[in-house]
């Protein structure tokens, strides 16, 4: 035979007005979080638009020649390399 009475609980019944007030408070918190996320997404969108609006290619014909830098050798940025055979080597 089944027990017709449910087991007792320690939870007191919550009045509907209190539930409504709690739901409204939670909704307000969620709206504030949503506004925060939206503002961050707008910042990210503007950042990405700025990146995508920049030219992707450089027209090599528009670059001015600097005669002094044309034949400047590149020197290794690792002068204390463990590989002794590359000491003082000029890169072309």
Automatic annotation (TrEMBL):
It comes from the Eukaryota. Residues 49-92 are annotated as: Disordered. Residues 49-62, 70-80 have a biased composition (Polar residues). This is Uncharacterized protein. It comes from Tanacetum cinerariifolium (Dalmatian daisy).
